[in-house]
Amino acid sequence: MGEGHHHPLPTTPVEDRVAALESLLVDKGILDPTAIDAVVEHYEHAVGPMNGAKVVARAWVDEAYRERLLADATAAIAELGFSGPEGDHMVVVQNTPEVHNAVVCTLCSCYPWPVLGLPPNWYKSPPYRSRMVREPRVLLAEMGCVVPEECEIRVWDSSAEVRYLVLPMRPAACDDLSEDKLAGLVTRDAMIGVARL
Amino acid sequence: MALCSDVAVDGIHDLGGIQGFGPVEVEHDEPVFHADWERRVYRLTVAAMLAGHLNGRFRHAIERMDPARYLASPYYEHWLTATATGLVEGGLVTQEELDDRLGAPYPVARSTRAPRLDHPGPSVGESRYEVGDAVRVREWHPVGHTRAPRYVQGKPGVVVRLDGAFSLPDVEYHCDSIRLEPTYSVRFEALDLWGTPGDPVHVDLWESYLEPRQASING
Fold first, then answer.
1. Which of A134, A190, B36, B173 is the most exposed place for a label (fewest CB within 10 A)?
2. Domains of chain A
3. What is the mean pLDDT of residues B140-155?
4. CA of A81 to nearest chain B CA: how many angstroms apart?
């Protein structure tokens, strides 16, 4: 761990390093990773953007809920049963004709797990993290999200404890859709702010 | 190995505003884990965190990775390296045990240069700033962990939201105790950040990162 243990590229295959660390911890009785298989299963399969989509659809059909969501997102999201690590201090930012919101974590990979699941690779990648704060309009357009010139883009760098969810504008001409159907229109990317519905 | 010793917080992870990275590559229908080893690293790291084995070490260990490897390696390799580093630094395993088990030198992050703090300093409960206050981010570059991104250091902004008090990471990562401090969301104009007009950026910052500023009459 001292300076003498710094190793230059290249190194051993990552799979071998995982196996070595796992087996060492098990043999030393420090921890058994399989004890939390259910947690991994939960984040891999049971949590994801479908949770956030329910929050958004509820906010579209229930004005009182929307107001609660904007005033205290953590509590309003918990009303629908979503809470936990990386979601303890939620803020919802609302898109309007004048404002488009987008979220980034320039220092690492902070992301609202309870409503969006684990982040995609591009969200954690150097191009996204470096460029989203410096040239958001250019980057969004490259990603297929063209924001009207008169609409301000507000970028939110989640550098502390708050995790953000974007509340997209409800698409026009879907007045007769049920809340469930509306939730089906909401995408992960729209809730990060790299897409518009 | 003296060249390995220079690691400060303006590390490779502090990516905001750096130019030259090119397009964002989006993988359609991306799986949560791309290979079983990624799933196992997630499991291992979360298990170690839940057991309290990585307290205050994990994230700073990622920041102390070799910069070239940080940029070139998959995300969950950052987690693996940081977990191994944190377990060694926490005294749960030794570098020699890791090397023996792997049959080769086991890569860990570089040592921190920040000294351990004997005392966390006094917690602050009451917020010094209000929404609308003109502030400036302190221009300073500590050798330890911080959450003040380089691209806003020294820059003027305006407080737009108060978020209550949280543990200051700059202390937590280098001390056995914590210091609570108010946090704020601060709006920065593109002109102030980059010298050209554009869209604003909001950054969430702890109170001691900020200092008061007289709002300019000329804007």
1. B36
2. 13-45 (no CATH), 49-192 (3.90.330.10)
3. 92
4. 22
